[in-house]
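Journal club prep, shared notes

We agreed each person brings one worked example of a sequence with its structure written out as tokens. Mine is beta-N-acetylhexosaminidase. I'm keeping it raw so we can talk through how to read the token line rather than staring at a rendered picture. Sequence first:
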Amino acid sequence: MTIVERTWKKLVHLDLKGAPPRVEYLHKLIELFSQLGADGLLVEYEDMFPYEGELKLLQAATHPAYSPEEVLSMQELAKSKGMEVIPLVQTFGHMEFVLKHRPMWSLREVPYCVGTLNPHKEEGVKLVMEMLRQVVKLHPGLNTLHIGADEVYILGEGEESKLWLSSSGRTMEQLFLSHVTKVAKAIKEVWPHMTIIMWDDMMRGMSQETLKASGLVGLVQPMLWDYTPDLDIDNTVSLLEKYHSVGLTHLWAASSFKGSTSVYTCVPSTQRHVDNHLQWLRVAASLSAGIKLQGIAITGWQRYDHLSVLCELMPVALPSLAACLQTLSCGHFSAEAQSEVTGRLGISSVEVEEIGRSPVDNSLFPGKKLAELIVEVNSLLNSDDIRLFENDMFVRGWFSPYQRQRKMVTPLITMQIHNTVKLKTHLPEICPQLFQEMVHLYQDSTVQEWIEEHALPVMAPLQRITEDIRACVKEMVP
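Then the structure, token by token:
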């Protein structure tokens, strides 16, 4: 028996609001998650869910949402591997994918915040319940729902909220709790058997008295999230014990294997995420007798929110995920545990930046070739030689924008600059390979977004220099 009790469920989070995998790749990922020891999936569909009727406008505009048949096939595969599927549907904050649409603008708490639902409008609760109804319908036998409710920004700033708060004794905490309680009760009325999980962050500062009086006891199960490698053990234990003391006895944790380092991280650090899990193990071991965690959601955020840039793609994060699951299973991340991960995935290191290119694409590591190419391209894109090339002495001294425009250049030095560009980067050779590999696993819109986000800002200036060199030399050399 390790530090983690065998009954502690390990859920892998699939964040589909960015870079949704093609179905064939998604199936390979689910197979791998099962082999790595996952007990279930926490699936955040957002605009990839095949909403119907008046909600059809919520489907992604840049690429097709998954079809009902594809959603069912994902569940069937997961269940065949003994994995539970839990949908995560935001019901208060982080509703950008809903409230960005013009017909939904009136349901925002304030006009300038796209993510927060107005808690005073009955239409808002009806909207949320219709979203949940469609999701539950397409998940036969569903027993557990995650209703989000994290990071409800700008709450209380709307005119209706200000009026509500102006009444004596009313607080922001009560405003938050009133909406969540209303949604949870509505869910229980329609699906009495349903277990409801929610993020805990909006409740962390609440007193025991406020939580007891909230009406949430017996309705929801808090999931406390912390993705940092230096997670505060004492404070986390204290929070969990506070929730337990007021009657919220079914508690969950949430860690991270990718998508939590920075909003634009391209390649993850495995050690950073392993350290986060080691801290969670210490939290679990420090809880008072009688308190135990139901499970842990190992989150893999693809965007910080619906309108932010892409975080690390799944292939480059699979070594991190495998290492985190191994850490939870073993209770440590020893050399033997690392060897288990590298052996299973067919890689030389648990750090994806160190795996290098291999002629063998191990079938236990779906997307390995793409991971290798992303690491190589990312290294080139972030090298000082390329990022600072426009500050090169010869470029600034003999090939400035002024000189290029007027073609007042020295052909000899210009040709030297051109040769230096070719020597410093082989991006033009690698990027087409990356493109071809990425398009097998992701839809075209994801490929275009990744290239425009990461490669073009660096490649475009180099390409302009190359084109200007050709034009200038043509004018100066007979």
